[in-house]
Each structure stands twice: as C-alpha cells, then as structure tokens.
Specification:
This protein is an alpha+beta fold. The chain has helices spanning about 70-75, 130-140, 145-155, 180-185, 245-255, 295-305, 310-315, 345-355, 380-390, 405-410, 435-440, 455-465, 470-485; strands spanning about 50-55, 85-90, 95, 100-105, 110-115, 160-165, 165-170, 210-215, 220-225, 235-240, 260, 275-285, 320, 365-370, 395-400, 420-430, 490-500, 505, 525. The strands form 4 sheets. Strands 1, 8, 9, 10, 11, 12, 13, 14, 15, 16 and 17 form an 11-stranded mixed β-sheet that branches. Strands 4-5-7-6 form a 4-stranded antiparallel β-sheet, with helices on one face. Strand 8 (about 210-215) and strand 9 form a beta hairpin. Helix 6 (about 295-305) packs antiparallel against helix 8. The longest helix is centred in the last third of the chain and has 19 residues, at about 470-485. It is globular, with a radius of gyration of 23 Å.
C-alpha cells in the first residue's frame, strides 16, 4: 500500500503509461456484448487521424459513473471521462495514487487520504476533498442502487469526512484491510452532481469529456483542455457499436475504426489483432431454490456432464483454459489445487437417476439463459451445454436474451415464477481479490447469488478480515468448499479477449482492457499522422 503523502510533499502528476508496439498474438475470445442495430459505415466518424474510432459490441447501458463497474459502462467512462482516487495496475496488481496522493491507515477502521491539488473538473470547478467525500457517499451510502455499492462494498456504509481541501478520512463499519483497493472502483464526480438521480452525461476529471451521445448511433468525446495530467495523443474519440464480430473486424480492415473489441478467434491469425488475458471466467449458475436444481445430486451431475475441453477446442478457439473455480490465476484466493471437474457422463447419469428415484422431478424443464454477444460462440456454447445436460436425463431449453433481460436473471431481486434457471455468466475479477467474487456470487444473499449455506457465509465473513497468506488460504479454502458442498456453479473456462487494432495506432492491451479501455494509452504508430 502507498503511504500518505502530506500536501507539502505532493506526488508529481502521473506520466502517460508506456506505449509499446501492438501485440501480435494468437486466438482468443470476446468479452461481452448484445445485439444492437447496425448503422451505415459512413457514420463512423472521420478518418483524419485526430479521431480515435472505437467499435464496441453494444451501446453502453448508461454513462453514470457509479455504474462504471459494469463492463459496458466502464469501457467508456473509467479513466477516460472520470477517475478514481486510487488506480490498480492491471499487470502488477499494485495500487497507485491518482486523484489521491497517498494513503495510510490511521485507526483500526479509519484510513486517511491525501488529495491532489491543481485538478479541475470538466465543468471548470476545482477538485477538492469535498468532492471525493461526496462521490463516495453518493456511490456507496445513497439510495441510487449503484452497481459499485453492491459489487464492491456490499451492505456496508462508509463514514467520509473532508478534513480539509487536501485531506480525506474514510471510516468503515468494521476493519477493512483492502479499503484503498475498493475505492479504486469509485469514480470521482463534482459535488454539484445530482445526489438523488443517476446522470446521463457525466462530468469528471479525466482526459476526455463527453461531446455528444446520439442514442443508437455514437458517443463522441473530446480532449479536455485543462486535464491535470499528460495530454492524450488523440484530440477526439468516437464510439460506435456493432453486434456482429465479423462486422467489427471488417471495420478495422476497411479503416473505418482503429480499435474493435471482442473479435472472433477466427480473426486471430491477422496481424491486426492482439490477444490478451481478460480475467473473465464463464460458468453456469444453478438456481438451487427450484427443483430439480435444489437437489445437490442434480447440480453435481451437471458439473460432471460438461465437456470443458471439448467446448474450448470446438467453440472457443482453443485458447481458453478449463476452469474449476470462479477466479483465474493471479487473483488472491485462486488455488492451483482446485482442478476442473473431469467429464463423467455415466456418473452424472447415475446421480440424476438416483435423484429421480427419490422423487426429485428431474423431468421438469430447466431454462438455460445466455446473453447474446457475451462472447464469441455463446449461442453454440449454450446449445452444447443443453445437449450435455439432456444426455444425462435432464430436460433443458435455451433462451438467448439481451443484456437487460439477462441482468434481470443475474441480479437481485431475482425474478419469481420462472422455474429452474441455469444462467450462463461471465465473471471478471479485475480487482485481483476473491472478496469481490465471494461476496457477490457465493454469499447466501449475495447480489448475484441464488442461495448458499450458513457455514460458507461464515467463512466468507472471516476471510474478509484477513490479510497476507492467511487471506489467500482462507479464500482458497472456501472456493473449494463451494465445489464440495454447495455446487451453485458449474465452472467452464477462464477466458481471453481479442482486439482488432489498426496499423495506424499502437496500443498494448492488458487484463483490464475489456472493462477499462484507457484512451490515453493509445498513440499513433510511428510515422502516422494525428
């Protein structure tokens, strides 16, 4: 953790992150998306070298900063329009000061942050500790139901105080050894921002400000002239969205875009693509509240029925890795001792037959819900899972949904009277700590959990207060316990991403790229005009 930097010892403004040659790598997978209407190629913006054109899979659901932990929002907002106090290096995992100058623990439950001076919001107002306190309070303590509140802080409120313009204290309800990491998810906005409603056009301190948002067409940003840090290379940025991965790839080939996200693995052999690990894990979440999924034998049978390597090789380009837990390597709590379940159709079928003999309605139809565009080959993956589940004696139908519908199934309050649901999810732990997974997906009343056990809930609560090796061991243990006695999840694969990159730019993607595409890290290729 960084130590507190007093106002008289301010850290220098951050320098631009190193721009390296474009990665030319092998095949990988998409990150996220849903179907939207295509627009004509001529509406993608000017190819004059001063506008960085990015094609996404879907239109962002919102640009509200407190929703920036949602992939579709964060890829545009985070570190581009708004910024947090603390920034996590996606490669090393180290925390670095951004709008804060440093921090230190000043009590059992209290942390003190130095606040950077000389920073201006895009509306001209100066940034002070009062804005930081307001932003934290608005995102975490309010009734706005921000995604960051549930995803990062759970049900815990924070006590925040601006001691002066350049000093902030944050006090937690109970000791929290990773509070600075949590605050890296809180985007800072001016204290004049509406505290009672979410905003459509955000104002922040980032290197770009919103010029326009044409619903269904494009979002345009322009370089913020009073940005406190290094000036980004491109004067403007323009986002459009195309649901078809082949269309996104073609836009790179036709020089209609400089960056295209979530390409199909089939495009990986091109010298205009770059593969990167994206910390995403796909899994089936089994709703244990509804028969037949309320029976442990049935849930375990589904886990045994899945041919992970077959799905990866045939449908995911062969470059994902079979998963046995919800967090990938590199995240605190990941355990190399937890191996992916090996397919055993005979054993799975026997478990279903045993449950049926005991009166479990194994013939009741299970709805397998998957989101359009979640990753390349998602519909084929859903059909493969349907086949493998039916092969062991279960009755399964597939429902492909758009983002809004899928979120209704994924987030509490969960829909009622919809029968047993097997939800295909893709979870990304960009924070690097299993707390952000277990508190969401494993707690009995977690925002993205359907059920759990009191024993597992206790272990999750105990692990949250630990640090160092004890923290690692505790989370590894409870992830193993999920597999042994709960089996809410059938883990499928640890994923990768594939970007399309124009030869006119240089950009090196990292594990955070799918959630936070930092435009300031993109520069023109040598000799290119901009």
């Amino acid at each position: 953790m960084k130590s507190f930097v007093p106002p008289t010892q301010r850290a220098a403004p951050r320098k631009p992150r190193k721009l390296t040659a474009t990665l030319l790598a092998g095949a990988a997978l998409m990150s996220s998306g849903c179907a939207v209407a295509n627009s004509a190629a001529g509406e993608t913006g000017r190819a004059d070298g001063s506008t960085l054109r990015v094609v996404l899979t879907q239109e962002p659901p919102t640009l509200e900063p407190c929703e920036a932990s949602l992939t579709g929002t964060g890829v545009v907002v985070r570190s581009n329009i708004t910024e947090p106090l603390v920034e996590r290096d996606p490669t090393s995992g180290e925390l670095n000061p951004l709008l804060a100058t440093g921090w230190k623990r000043t009590g059992d439950r209290t942390w003190t942050f130095g606040i950077r001076s000389g920073v201006t919001f895009q509306n001209g107002a100066p940034f002070t500790a009062k804005d930081a306190a307001f932003s934290i309070d608005r995102a975490v303590n309010s009734d706005l139901a921000c995604n960051v509140e549930g995803y990062v802080f759970g049900n815990d409120d924070l006590e925040v105080e601006a001691v002066s313009d350049d000093e902030l204290t944050v006090t937690t309800e109970k000791p929290d050894p990773i509070l600075p990491l949590r605050l890296s998810f809180v985007e800072i906005v001016p204290r004049t921002t509406d505290a009672d409603a979410k905003v459509r056009i955000p104002v922040g301190t980032g290197p770009y400000e919103v010029r326009s948002w044409q619903p269904g067409a494009a979002i345009s940003l322009s370089r913020f002239g009073d940005y406190w840090g290094e000036e980004p290379a491109f004067a403007r940025a323009r986002y459009v969205w195309r649901s078809d991965a082949s269309v996104r790839a073609a836009m790179i080939d036709k020089r209609e875009a400089e960056i295209a996200v979530a390409l199909d693995p089939m495009e990986a052999e091109k010298d205009t693509t770059a593969a990167y690990p994206n910390n995403e894990t796909t899994a089936l979440r089994l709703d244990g509240r509804e028969a037949p999924l309320d029976d442990l034998r049935v849930r375990r049978a589904i886990d045994l029925a899945v041919d992970r390597q077959g799905i990866i090789d045939a449908l995911l380009g062969g470059l994902a890795e079979p998963a046995g837990q919800l967090v990938p390597p590199g995240v605190v709590g990941h355990s190399d001792a937890i191996e992916p379940t090996r397919q055993d159709v005979a054993k799975a079928r026997a478990l279903v037959e045993e449950a049926s003999a005991d009166g479990v309605p194994t013939g009741r139809q299970i709805t397998l819900v998957a989101r359009n565009g979640m990753f390349s080959g998602v519909s084929e993956t859903a059909e493969a899972l349907q086949y493998q589940m039916e092969r062991i004696g279960l009755n399964v139908r597939v429902r492909m949904a758009d983002t809004a519908t899928q979120l209704q199934y994924q987030l509490r309050p969960l829909p009622e009277d919809v029968g047993p649901i097997a939800l295909l999810i893709m979870h990304g732990n960009q924070a690097g700590d299993a707390d952000f997974t277990t508190s969401q997906y494993l707690l009995s009343d977690g925002p993205q959990s359907t059920f759990g056990t009191k024993a597992l809930d206790r272990r999750i609560a105990e692990a949250a207060g630990l640090s160092g090796e004890k923290r690692q061991e505790a989370y590894a243990g409870l992830l193993a316990e999920q597999n042994a006695s709960v089996v809410q999840y059938t883990h499928i694969a640890h994923m990768s991403g594939l970007l399309g990159l124009s030869p006119s730019i240089r950009y090196e993607p990292n594990s955070a790229t799918g959630d936070e595409l930092r435009l300031a890290e993109v520069g023109p290729a040598e000799g290119a005009k901009h």
